[in-house]
Amino acid sequence: MTTQDDMDGRLARLRAEWPVGSMVDDVMARIGPESPRRASLRRRLFAGLAASGLAASLGLAWLILASHPTTLLAGVQDSLNKAKSAHLIITAWNDRDVAYRSDTWYRKGEGLRVESPDQVIVEDGKTQWAWRPDATPGELVVLRQRSPGFFTTQLPAMLALPDVGGEWTQARTPELDRDVDGLACQGFTLNLKPPTPSGAVRPVDQPAIRGLVLAEPDGRIHEITVQRRRDDGSWRREREIRIEYDVPIPAEKLAANLPAGARVIDRDAAFDSRYPLDRAIHRVELGGLILAVHDLQPLKDRGGFYVVSSVRGTPEFLKAYPPRRRPLNPEVVLLDVAFQRVANGNLGGKYDFVGLGSATRDGVEFGWWIVMPRRFFQVKDGKREYLPENDASAMPGEPGRLDDLPGKARVPLSATYWDEKHRDAKGAMQGVSTWVEVPLPPDRPPTTLEVVAGRARRDLLLMGAAGGLLGVAADAKGGPQTLRPLSHFAPEAISDADFAAAVRRGLDDLRAFDEVRDIPPEEMLPPLGEAAPKR
User: Fold this and answer.
1) How many whole angstroms separate alpha carbon 337 and alpha carbon 320?
2) For 133, which DSSP code?
3) Is the alpha carbon torsion for 524, 530, 531, 534 positive or negative?
4) Mind listing the pLDDT tens digit for each residue in 4-47?
5) What is the DSSP code string of 286-355?
């Protein structure tokens, strides 16, 4: 059995053989020698992995594989490391059994190319270029960055089995034996261990999964199939990885021939250059944190405001409370300073907050969101009748209106500390919040939700940091008294129109909670001093 030390050694050795330095070394050099804390990391990361799908799992899967089917990852890495070239075909099927295929061509010491319906990636071992082949005319952007490394970031994601909190076992499965590309291969099955008497290893609400592996007798892996068990007990395939070794790779597959007319953006610099702090339209310091507004635009029909905001620590705060280092993958380390609660929900008594997405890098977090007045209504004869608006607010500090100041907007800013020293006696995370008056930029006339949703998606695509978009998926389910859950979307894996639709579904959910109902007489409280009527 491969131990964790064995796995760490293999990853380090394979990373060293790839002809590029590790990005993590640069980050570590800037933030000092403190060791990262890993206690609850896997639990936090799984939520993002499950919601984002394969495209967003590229940076997370190494943690899952390092703690579960380690022999699978190590076996494929060793096989590819011994090969001069390889072609990987990855096919994924959705719930409707529609196939999604991507191809990876790899030649040792030279580079690789990944092609999928929504992305092309080319690496030469030092630099990576990535673009969407289906970009609309005039919006074709090539993102350039230092190569994150094939073995340590992309390969683990291709093999990742979902992390459902259990332990895995590997069993020889002779009935799966068959030839692959003319080579006799043996079958193996990766299964979750059954629950133990001391408690369930796998949560009961998690569907069972398994991995089917075909490998040569010497261990070289040719095929991996991930399956999920249906309610009726049958197995449905979710992903299949086929690997062809030592195959001819055409030179044009590895050449960095960028699309004609594309705009090349340095992804490493884009995060800082898109919304620099010194060009923020408003900023305020609270509790050692700098809260800033970088973009602001009204929505049509007094629909509220679209906001791009950020949070970071002041130099004094960072010195007093050094950021916790949290490894996202072997090449990216996050610095936990503070975060904005970018989600959907009611804000105070008069407003709704709609989260569009967030991105974080080097201790700075950006958020994209909308704040808008609630629209209270009653249902009469099956139709909504909206109540008259007023400028009153019963909540302390909450403004009666967002747009009552000429040339300005009132918007809420808030952030929550990551630092464990900023917690109350019960361990709850503490934060800061305030309402601010922000000047309206002259080049931001009222617009629609669809326009700002598209702008947020393109911002996240260009800035290339950890994070993602938020919205309600088309197939999300909810109850009559609960919001449908938010899903995470990778910006490169969704179109402007589909993302805007996901945001609007979330807004529709919030609007349903604006209904005002008349209280029946039997449920009304009696006047003060009178006894309640007997029932």
Assistant:
1) 12
2) T
3) negative
4) 444 444 434 443 443 333 333 343 343 333 333 333 333 332 23
5) ETTEEEEEEEEEEBTTT--EEEEEEEEE-HHHHHHSPPEEEEEETTEEEEESEE---S-EEETTTEEEEE
